[in-house]
Amino acid sequence: MRRISIDPITRLEGHGKIEIFLDEGGDVVNTYFQVPELRGFEQFCVGRLAEEMPVITNRICGVCPEAHHIASVKALDELFGVVPPDAAKKIRELIYMAFFIADHTTHFYALGGPDFIVGPDAPPSERNILGVINKVGPDAAKEVIKCRARNHHVLEMVGGRGIHMPAGVPGGWSKSINERERKEIEVIAKENIDFALFSLKAFDDIVLKNPAYLDLVTSDVYVHSTYYMGLVDSRNRVNFYDGMVRIVDPEGKEFVKYHPRDYVSHIAERVEEWSYLKYPYIKAVGWKGFVDGKDSGIYAASPLSRLNVSDSMPTPGAQEHFEKMYETLGSKKVNGRYQPIHHRLVTHWARLIELLYAAEHMLELATGPEITSPKVRVIPEKIVGKGIGCVEAPRGTLTHHYESDGRGVLTMVNMIVGTTNNYAPMTLSIKRAAEKLITKGKIIEQGLLNKIEMAFRLYDPCLSCSTHSLPGQMPLVVNIRNSDGKVVRTFSR
Fold first, then answer.
1. For 340, phi and psi rounded to 5 degrees?
2. In sequence order, what are the beta bridge partners of 254?
3. Residue-wise over 418-432: b if at least 16 C-beta within 10 A, else e?
């Protein structure tokens, strides 16, 4: 049996590798998406004071600390039995929009973008941010840098620090926004809208008008029929900060909608012996292995998933592009809503529509009447002992679950990180891409291996903040099997 290793995989947050096993005829027998790092936050946070969690968990990752910070303070609101003032909720949501804009921009231009802008078959030395700059020109590159800079300025101004912000507290926010700051944020939000529209046009020009790229996006290499998950508001529209968790089946029919605090009734988690990853699945459907379809409990939670579960977008520009995406790809409306798109590379398009939504909503919040209210916190006066906070991280639905004793000392911590939701779909996507691209007699070259990497990269995985399930052990065991399935070698550490 022959083995192909892609190690390390590139343009993602964290570390991982892909192992591909071929039979004697050169066809793919199996693939393994392995993540050989352990973070352990769920264990070493036990015994800490609950109020420390927003500044501990935002150290999980340097890419999405804001998502952990906001999910954590929402969990503490429940744990301490306190409802933040409306102004505090709006400040949290406003800063979250700035974070989403910076994060989605990073992925599109620096991580996922090189596959399309430079080309999937381009030499590895060119498939990077420098290759993108060479293609789009220095003026466009300056706009990308300016976008990230102005939104990180908002994070620092409102959150107290440009990274690992400390401003979120149980019961609200530690700092109000004054009129001078509000006006500055309003200008930034308008610039963000222009930038989002520029990015959507770039996607249209570079990808949608290129027949080869469009064929790749809609090919059967990157397609899976799974359930989808995302937060929705009271009108079943996309919401990053609050709402109900909605899951739709592969045909687009609502399967369940539940409050985030009820997640354990609907989502189960399992581990595989060959990775530190956790694999959540829909409890009512059950785990049927790494297979897709209506009978498999595997679900995806990504930008495309959020659009697939939603009836519409909350802002006008995003709604226009939402309709264009589904109409362009031939999705039909059933009972007033579009059927899901299963072509996973479309996630890049969905990400840009979310970028526009975040920019438009940021402007709505910055011009709202309550955003400069000085009433930004209610001091907690009791300990309920259990709190569950949920937001949409850029990579998927993020849940923090804390339980404490009567002193507020944590006795249990569980987190389902955005990327965690997508481990099973990523495993499916990698195997399918390998099976479709590597066949008998085909020469395995760099461009082909990069197309296999594109199968996980579209999910924008953040492995550094989502591997934390197994306490204090290194249970990585790798079995190499022959074409009959017999184990011929086992190694572990």
1. -65, 150
2. 248
3. bbbbbbbbbbbbbbb
